[in-house]
């Protein structure tokens, strides 16, 4: 799974990311049907298990279930859930990942961007609020705490870009956006159903099947300032592991 594919705005790369999640769901991809957990995590984790479960819902044949589900979810993720955001404010496509370049290269002929106001657009904007890294965030937090002025800033403080508490708060919001969940519910409509009165932000499908869709972001509990210290410690462990691995590789190459 490559998050750069999921946030690319390219339908092909988005579906590539979803296929990877289906084939190795761990606790990152779950499917419920009629309120019953049927796939991912503690339920069945073999992608072939989806075929008999969802054949009548999203595929004409068992061979097409995985692809049909990925196409549906990709379309749902591209719906404009925040219609207040101007359509011309779309974020440009994420760059390709060097580790996955050969498997997810976009062969489309047009430029891509995330749909403005889509759930992925909203999540990515929140994730990008971390204009500082964990080390700087920890230093700023210590300065704020030393003056005993740490409180989440009010909306009125939004323009105070140099305010230390605001920088820390934005970093915490970014951490929350990197640890949330997206829940998509879909209901298949009967063939020939009249959809003219349905809002476009709740309607997905193709010429053969149409679905009502609803999207929600959950797990939005605000991170405490202690999360910054834990994030910094984790980053230091990752850097140490990388340096050790690079050193070992250099030693092996010199033998």
TrEMBL record:
Keyword terms of this UniProt record: ATP-binding, Kinase, Nucleotide-binding, Transferase
One of the Pfam families matching this protein, by short name: Ins_P5_2-kin
GO CC annotations on file: nucleus
Keyword set includes Transferase: yes
A GO BP annotation: inositol phosphate biosynthetic process
EC category: transferase
Protein EC: 2.7.1.158
Task performed by this protein: Phosphorylates Ins(1,3,4,5,6)P5 at position 2 to form Ins(1,2,3,4,5,6)P6 (InsP6 or phytate).
Domain comment as written in the entry: The EXKPK motif is conserved in inositol-pentakisphosphate 2-kinases of both family 1 and 2.
Protein name: Inositol-pentakisphosphate 2-kinase
